[in-house]
Amino acid sequence: MTRLLERGGVSLEAGGSVLRVEGQVGFEVATALAEAGRGWLAGQPAGTAVSFDLTGVADVSSAALSVLLEWARAARAAGLTLEAVRLSPALRRLTDLAGLERLLPLAGVAA
Questions:
Q1: CB 85 within 8 A of CB 105
Q2: What's the pLDDT at 101?
């Protein structure tokens, strides 16, 4: 795994075709997190299948969901395939509540 960002107790790592986030994602770090992920996505060859792993995000966070949606848009714009999104149980509940589950290829999550 390559560390792309470490700020305010939040880390973003990339390994293979996976972006992985850990920590408490709040609005104070969301912009930097979104930018770091967008930069990594832009560097992937078109047609690559990528996954996002947010199972290590500690709390329910609308900031984390905003980052996730930004990355999904960036992946589409770069011609990438979003293969799977893995969420912590708290983020999965928020995603379901917001009706976003049909927009994302959710995988490997516990309700």
A1: yes
A2: 77
